[in-house]
Amino acid sequence: MAIELVVVLSNSQRSPGSLSPIYRLAAVGGGAAIVLGEAEKVVVTRMTRSRGKAVFLCSCGGRGRAVSLEVRQWLSISTNCFHARALRKAFELLVAHFRKVSVDALLQRYTALDNSRTLATAEKQVFYATKSHKKRSLFAVLCAGTWSSVGIRPRFGKKGTKRRQIMRASCTRLSFIDHWMCKHAKAVNYWCAEARQAAEVAGGVGAPAMVEEADVILADPLGRRRQPVRSPAAQAAAQAETDARF
Ligand SMILES: [Zn+2]
Ligand SMILES: [Zn+2]
To answer: Which one, of 42, 69, 63, lies nearest residue 149 by Cα?
Structure first.
């Protein structure tokens, strides 16, 4: 984690081939959060300050999973999972690496690390993090000041319809709402649709959506197959054809 944060904080390049076969790790939001993939599971861990105290939170909720992240933050207690513990350790290593006297001094220099400085807005920000070993994309979504981890997973169609497997965003946040339909999963599905559209505008119909990694699997388009997006040239040609008819 410390190495990944050093890479992000000092704007250097990630070394290729650093991916482990099972574990995946990527800092997002300029170091504001770390996404960890473990096989097809994904969590996001981050640091914030609550009443002046550094608190390390993780979307897995830690052991017991009983206390919500909001309550933990309010009580100024970190989660007790190993993801958050690893992040705490990484911060200690960063203090040494950047030759700072304390975590506070580190946070003053690298403000992105401290989530209590981020304004909590209802706007949903989607960050592509990395891919799982099955090449499915893993995301972090920032909304209302808290981070959620979202992975792309296969989902089977409803009964009665053709039971076709589609790839869809699935939220791993610890609340008991539908993890396929919550606002975080929807935001990622939307992000994927936008990425596809952008790819088709740039590269023509059927062009693969390129995120940071070429072979990454995104969420499938929603509902019936959407109208393919035509390039500006094709649009102009279609318009000319329509005009010629009248
Ligand atoms: Zn955790
Ligand atoms: Zn969610």
So the answer is: 42
For 218, phi then psi, to 5°, come to -105, 175
Average pLDDT of the chain is: 83
Sign of CA dihedral 14, 130, 20, 35: positive
Distance 244 CA to ligand 2 centre (A): 50
What total number of domains does the chain contain?
1
Task: Look up residue 141 and give its amino acid.
Answer: V
Write down the pTM of the prediction.
0.82
Residue 30, domain member (yes or no): yes
Q: Is residue 115 part of a domain?
A: yes
Could you tell me the residue range of the domain that residue 30 belongs to? 2-203
114 pLDDT tier (thresholds 50, 70, 90): very high
Q: Ligand 1: distance of its center to the CA of 230 in Å?
A: 43
SS3 call for 102: coil
Give 157 Cα–ligand 2 centroid separation in angstroms. Answer: 20
**Per-residue pLDDT tens over the stretch 173-205:** 766 668 898 999 999 999 999 998 888 888 877
Instruction: Tell me if 151 is assigned to some domain.
Output: yes
Does any domain span residue 212?
A: no
- Cα-to-centroid distance, 186 and ligand 2 (Å): 8
The span from the first CA to the last CA of the chain, in angstroms, equals 64
Sheet holding 125-131, edge to edge: 125-131, 137-143, 146-156, 165-171
